Every structure is written in structure tokens, then in C-alpha cells.
Queue: 3 jobs
Job 1
Amino acid sequence: MEYLSLGKIVDSFGVDGTVKIYSTTSFGEKRYKKGSKVLIYNPQDDDRKEYEVIKYRHSGFFDFVKFVGLTTPEEVKTMKGFEIQVIKDNKDLDKDTYFYSDLRGCKVVDENNNELGFIKEIEEFPAQITFRVGRKNGKDFFVPFIKEFVKNVSIDEKIVTIHVIEGLL
């Protein structure tokens, strides 16, 4: 079974056991809808426990989530560094959308099928989502994740074809 990370617990917030999460999801409103269930993953003992969402709000880089069963700041503080996860389900995706985890590691080629590198990371800048492409012998370069640059994504083959313009590399 594969899991998607929604973020990491950084602290408690307030006195009612609300969890402050450094968010790594673009779909917080959907993932933390009242009644939704998520997993809290403890990496020290490789254990996951399911929690139901009561309340959610987002501010800056953080999600603030109140879960059933977590009622004190002390309980939450024992979970600092734990990851919030959901089970990966491709049915959640719209057409031509991808999980970031599926894009990481994909080979990047130009329109002539010349290998340029691999996707190291997907970074979200205010203007757009951008691929950080690592090269074997050279500096990383960035490719905006927009139609003008990204011509084809094949998750099955783990290949992303891009249009290269002067100055991109």
C-alpha cells in the first residue's frame, strides 16, 4: 500500500489539542474536510493510527486541524515530527493531473528524446509549480509545470518531455 504525505506535525495550537501541521498538500480543504479520516504516521515505530477530522483551517504554510481523540496540547506534543498521511488513490485525480510523488524521479527529455536529467523535486512558487531537474554533470535547472514547457507526461514510463527554449538549461 502506498501513502501520500499531507505534511508534518510541528506543534500543538491552542489548548484543545488542535494540531499545527507544516503543509505539503495542495488539497488541504479536500483532505481535511469534516468527517474525513487521515493517518498519523510515527516513523520511530513505523506505526499509523487513523484520526477523524473535526475542524480545519489553513494559514500561510500551515494547516490547523482538530481531530477526534486529541484533546490536549500535551498529547499533540508527543507527535511532533510525525507525518500526516492518506492512502494513495488515483481515483482522487482529475484527468492530466498527477501526484507529486509520481513525478519525482521521472526522466526528463527534450522533444528530440535527448535525456536532460530527472525530476528531483516539485517546488511551488507564487507564480506556478516548477520542476527542479537534476543533471548528472551540471547544475540543476527549473522547468515551469505549464503546457508551454511540459509537452508530455508518461507516469507509466516515468518520462516527462519538455520544450527547451534558450536560457532554460
Job 2
Amino acid sequence: MNPNSETVAPLKVVIAKPGLDGHDRGAKVVARALRDAGMEVVYTGIYQSPESIVRAVIQEDADVLGLSSLSGAHMEYAQAVADLLRQNERDDVLFLVGGTIPPEDAAVLKDYGIDEVFGPGTPTETLVTFVFEHARATAKS
């Protein structure tokens, strides 16, 4: 290793499933794709509250938060998480939402502070590229 080269830690991503949505296959596929791309991924598991999701972002000092929702409650949970991120001065995190999100809801979610919305069938390469191009926080060394 070149001692003059700068060593940069990988981006840290938290993937979370809010509420009573127990369908986590998509979240696990996304987590694996991001991990395979070299990111450090923390999957919080299912049935998470907005408070526990934001607590994980803070404790892990995450660069990116991915919220996965298939239950139809994406509007309420995304808004609650966005509000808590702001209250905890972590609105610098790249905030993504994925799942079965109607197109008309995507614009409203962005008004809440979500950076991007990914619907069903989005290629994982698209998501990985977006994260690398848009992560606001620089990876910590």
C-alpha cells in the first residue's frame, strides 16, 4: 500500500423496514447489492419504528438511509423518519425510499426530504450508481 495514498472507508448504509411490513426480500436484495458494490450495510430488520430507524442512522453514523415499504404506509413512515432526521441534525444523510410507491406519491415524498424514490423492478445497478453519485457525506477515513 502506498503510504501517501488516502485510505477512505466505504459508504455506510442503513436499510430499514418500518412498521408492520414483514416483506423483506427486496430490502435484502438491495442490501446485498450495496454490500457487493463495496458499501458497509446495516440491515435493521423488519417491524422498525421511525425512532429506532433514526437511532440506527445516528449510532452507525450512516451516510445513506434506505427505507423499504411494501405496506402502503410509506407516506406516514417516510415523513416521520424525515422529521426525526431533521430534529436530530442528520438530514445530511442521503435518504432513499423504495418499494411499491405510486408515482403520484414520489413527488410528495421528495417534498418531505426524501432524495429519491425507487419503484418495483428498479435494477440494482441503478440504485448503486445513484448512491455513489449522490451520497452527500464523504466516507470517513
Job 3
Amino acid sequence: MNLEGLLRFLRAAGMLKRTIRSGWRRIGVEDPESVADHSYRTALLTMLLADLEGVDCEKAMRMALLHDLAESMMGDLTPEEKRLLGESYHRREEEAMERLLEGLPGELTHRYLELWREYKRCETPEARLTHQADRLEMVIQALEYEMEGRVKSENFNRFWRWEGEGLASKLYELLRRKRGA
């Protein structure tokens, strides 16, 4: 077993603790959350939604834990930045994930890369649920920042777009009502 490869992987994941979520910084939130902060609550939310909706929880949680890992090499880009980069962004993200996973034992490298690709394609129930958890976590964070008065509320409107289903949509509607209260 390549212990150096395992350590490299864990150090890369640790970089997410120091990678600030750029969307919050862009609208003026002081001391915004890190990607690791976001990823943790996304994984927890994924676990809850998967268990409550009867989706393969282990598979969905693995996707949640891997979903932002490439940001340890690429930084946290906003959706607008990703759109501007187009296909080059997707290529660079894929290359980053391959490099991050290459030091792991072969079966894990392949398994994690395939799970991450499945998440990106968003075609399976686990991938769709994990995408919804990712989005819903951002909405929860937006509401928390708004309630703390960290930035003017109109700056948060871009974070409140929603497309989803099931329990995640019900939670989103509850958050929307709380925002309006």
C-alpha cells in the first residue's frame, strides 16, 4: 500500500478547510465558510435525505464527500466562472480529480472516480439527491447569513434558485417561508 499516496490525498482534502467559498466573499460576507464547512453539512444533509427517502445512503454519502474535492486544486469557482470556462473547466476538474485520487490503491481510485463522475452526470437517484443536498445546504447557509445581518438581503437572492423534488423541496419551501417571516 502506498502510504505516501494516502497522505497526499488527505492533505489535499485538508486544503478544503482553507478554501473559502468564493460566492459568499463576492457578495461581501466577511469571514465566510470554507468548502470543508459546506461539504460537511452537505454530507450530513445527504445522509438524512437518503435515509428518509429510501435512497442508497452509503453511495450518496460517498458522492457528497467527494463532490467538491477537486476544489482543493482548482479553488472554489462560482457558477458564472464555471460557465465562462465552459468545457475547459470540466476537463480541468476531471484532471484534478484523477490527480487527487491517483495515489490511492487502484480499486479505490477507480471506485471513487466513477462515483464522482456519476455525481457529475446527475442521472441516478443518489446523484440527484446529493445535488439537491448540495444546493439546499447553500440555501440554509444563505438564510443563516441573512439572519445574522452579514450582508443586505437582496445580495442573497441569487442563492435562492431551486429545482428539486421530494423532501429537499419541502425543506426548501420551509426555508423560503422562514426567510419571508
